Amino acid sequence: MFTTTPFSIWELNEKLLHGLENIGWEFATQVQKETIPLALSGKDVIGQARTGSGKTAAFGLPTMNACQASGELQALILAPTRELANQVAEELNNIQGEMGLIIQTVYGGTDLEKQARSLQSGVDIIVGTPGRVMDMTERGHIDLGKPDFFVLDEADRMLDMGFFPDIMWIVERMSGRSQTLLFSATFPQEIIDAANEFMNDPDFVLTNTEKLDIPPIEQYSVRVGRANKLWVVGRLLARMSDEDQTIIFTNTKRMVDLLVQRLKKHRFDVEGIHGDLSQNQREKIISKFKNGECKVVIATDVAARGIDVDGITLVINYDVPDDVDNYVHRIGRTGRIGRKGEAWVLVGRDDLPQINKIAATHSLDIIATEAPDLPDGIDRDPVRKQEDNSEAADVFGMVPIKISTTDMSKYSIVELLISSLNCSELAIGDITINDDHSVVEVHNKHASLALRSLNSNKLDASIIEG
C-alpha cells in the first residue's frame, strides 16, 4: 500500500510536513501519491479508493494546505455518518501539526445549539453530515458561500443512504467553491452524472486494485461478553515476556480512556493514545513505545497510524472493527520482519456477523478458542472473571435456563423461583415443558441466583447460550 514517495517532495506547508514527521509518516500511500499533486495544482479530483487506503490524508493534506488559521470557514468536508465525520476530523487534527486550524464536526444526534456556539467562536474547516449541515445553514449558523474547498467522502454510501438531494442542495449554495474532491469505493452511474454537474473537468485517480497484505500470524477469537473482556485481556497480558510489546485496539476514544483507567487499576503499565490528546502527549507516548519504555498501548485506529514498532508481538482487538479492512490494518502491526506474532479478537454475540464478514472477505483463518490459560507461576487472574449471562439474554434481558425435570408444572416453577429469588413475576418469562427437559426464562439480573437455586433443588440447571 505504501510507496517510496516521501511527503517532502510536495510543496506542502512546513508545519504540515513537520506534523507528518512527528507522527512518523514518511512515505505516501498509492492514493496519496496520485491525488495530492493533482489537488495541490488546483484541479478537481475524483478518487476511487477503499477505506483504509489512506484517502483521508489524500484529501485532508491538500485541504489543510489551502487553509489559513483565520477562524473563517474555508473548507467543507461531507461524510455519510457521524462516526466517519469524527474519524476524519480526528485524523486531520492528528496530522495538521502546528498549523492551528480549527476543525469542527457538525452532525445530527447531538445538541445543535452547542455545535452552533462552537462555530460562532471561529472555524476553518467543517467536517459534517449532509442533514445537519443543511439544518445549520437554514438556521444561519453556516454560510455556505464562504468555503472555496469542498470534499465529498464515501459518495457511494451517501447515494445508498439517500443523501444526494441534500448534497446537491448544499453544492448549489456554495457560491465561492473553486475546487472539489470526491472519493468513492464504487461509482454507480448516478454518482458520475452528479459529479459531471458540479465538478469542473475532474481528473480520475483509480487505486482500488490495491490488495491488503495479510501478515503470516496466528489469529484467534474468543466469544466473551463485554463484562469479561477485561478478564481475557488480563490473561493475554499476563503471558507477555519482558521483550514483548502489545497494542490494544478499540473503536472509540472513550473506550481507550476507560481501558487505561481499568488496566492501571489492575496494576498494568499501559498508555492510551487518541485524537483528543495534544500533539506533545501523543509524541511522548509513541516515543516511549518505540523505545521500549512502554510495553502496552491502547489506541483508536486513526491514532495508531503513527505507531510503527517492529517489536509488537501481540495485537488485541478489544472491539471488533466497524470496517472490514481495518481488521487487517490492525493485525498487520505484529509479525513484522518475520517475527512471531499473535492477534486476538474479543467477540460478543452481536459481533458475530461482522467477524464472519471480515474472515470471509479476506479468507482469514481466525481460530475460535477459549481464553488462554494463565502462564506457569501465576495462579490468580490479574482481572477477576465476572458472572455474566448477557451473552445468553435476548433483547428484553431474559436468559433461558434449561432444567432436567419435566414433572413440575409451570406454576410450580414460577412459585419456586419467586420464593427463592424474592422477585416479582415479571422477572420470570416463558416456560416450556418438553419431553425430556424444561426451559424457563429469567431476567439477567436474577439469572445467576436462579441457576444456583435450581441446582440446589437438584434440578440440574444450565444456561442455554445464544
Characterization of this structure:
With 466 residues, this protein is α/β, with parallel strands linked by helices. It folds into 3 domains: 2-206, Rossmann fold (3-Layer(aba) Sandwich), CATH 3.40.50.300; 218-369, Rossmann fold; 390-463, Alpha-Beta Plaits, CATH 3.30.70.330. It is 36% helix and 20% strand. Strand 5, helix 5 and strand 6 form a beta-alpha-beta unit. The longest helix is centred in the N-terminal third of the chain and has 14 residues, at 82-95. The relative contact order is 0.10.
Brief overview:
The protein has 466 residues and is of the alpha/beta class. The protein has helices spanning 14-22, 30-40, 55-65, 82-95, 112-120, 130-138, 155-160, 164-172, 189-198, 229-238, 253-265, 279-290, 324-331, 352-361, 410-421, 444-456, and strands at 2-6, 27-29, 45-48, 75-78, 103-106, 125-128, 149-152, 179-184, 203-206, 218-223, 245-249, 270-273, 296-299, 312-317, 342-347, 366-369, 398-403, 428-433, 438-443, 462-463.
